[in-house]
Amino acid sequence: MKIVRYSIGSKTEYGILDGEQIQVIDGTPFPEIKKLDQSRKQSEVKLLAPCEPTKIVAIGLNYHSHAKEVGQPAPEEPIMFYKPSSSVIGPEEKIYNPGSTRVDYEAELGVVIKTQATKVSEKDAMKYVLGYTCCNDVSARDWQKNDSQWTRAKGADTFAPCGPWIETDIDPGNVLLEAYLNGECKQSVNTSDLIFDVPSLIIYISRFITLFPGDIISTGTPAGISPMKSGDTIEIKVEGIGTLRNYMA
Ligand code: MG
Predict the structure, then answer these.
(1) From the CA of 35, how far away is ligand 1's center (Å)?
(2) CA 160 – ligand 1 centroid, Å
(3) CATH architecture for segment(s) 2-46
(4) For the chain, domain boundaries
(5) Whole-structure pTM over 0.70, yes or no?
(6) Considering only the top CATH level, what class is 55-248?
(7) Residues at Cβ < 5 Å from ligand 1 ion
(8) Residues with Cβ within 8 Å of residue 136, at least 6 apart in sequence
(9) Alpha carbon of 150 to ligand 1 centroid (Å)
(10) Distance 105 CA to ligand 1 centre (A)
């Protein structure tokens, strides 16, 4: 099932996308989906970021291939950082570089949280997941290197493209994750290369930080990072979800 969030006229709604048709949802999909007897055509709406996270908890160095690429050992515990809600943009929107010398894309699988998660146990972890989306952990490498933390490097406005929707039915441990820069494949790795898998991340994060409905865990990027320049088109593809496309302003 594909859950979309969109604007139509002055209204914002959630719905279930089926082909070209969207069945409207009552309110939000959190914690339960209630379908209304009302539909829209996809062509008459503008897709937005698929949810409104209070925060994105992103994970650094979570692919064996990427750790190797940057010459670091696999971490013993997940490396967490925040991307603020103000950094989120939706599909087809522009990414703005606010003055960095190098802005990279990072293709990531995003996990959308369904219900409030605090100190989650191993057997329950996946019950807190609504579904999955494509994320681009846009990163200013100069600031990431030179600032003592990553607030500016990872959290600037427009640095968290998400979408195009939430897919509820994929196996997050076995899908192909790819980045295409101007149509050229730059990253292509199966999520089976993750160091910490989705349930492990939910358990670990929720030990310290409560996750709210709509919060996103951005699970880390594989090898193949490189910079984007003005006018570039960047696409993040996750098998079974779809393609998130954005443009560098
Ligand atoms: Mg990342």
Answers:
(1) 34
(2) 10
(3) Roll (2.30)
(4) 2-46, 55-248
(5) yes
(6) alpha beta
(7) 106, 137, 221
(8) 95, 105, 106, 107, 108, 160, 161, 162, 179, 234, 236, 244, 246
(9) 11
(10) 9
Report the candidate in 131, 98, 134, 91 with the shortest Cα–Cα distance to residue 221.
134
The reply to whether 55-248 shares the fold of 2-46 is: no
Each residue's pLDDT, cut to its tens digit, for the chain (249 residues) gives 999 999 999 999 999 999 999 999 999 999 899 999 999 999 999 999 999 999 999 999 999 998 998 899 999 999 999 999 999 999 999 999 999 999 999 999 999 999 999 999 999 999 999 999 999 999 999 999 999 999 999 999 999 999 999 999 999 999 999 999 999 999 999 999 999 999 999 999 999 999 999 999 999 999 999 999 999 999 999 999 999 999 999
Tokens for 150, please give them: 């990553």
- Taking the centre of ligand 1 as the mean of its atom positions, its distance from the CA of residue 183, in whole angstroms, is 21
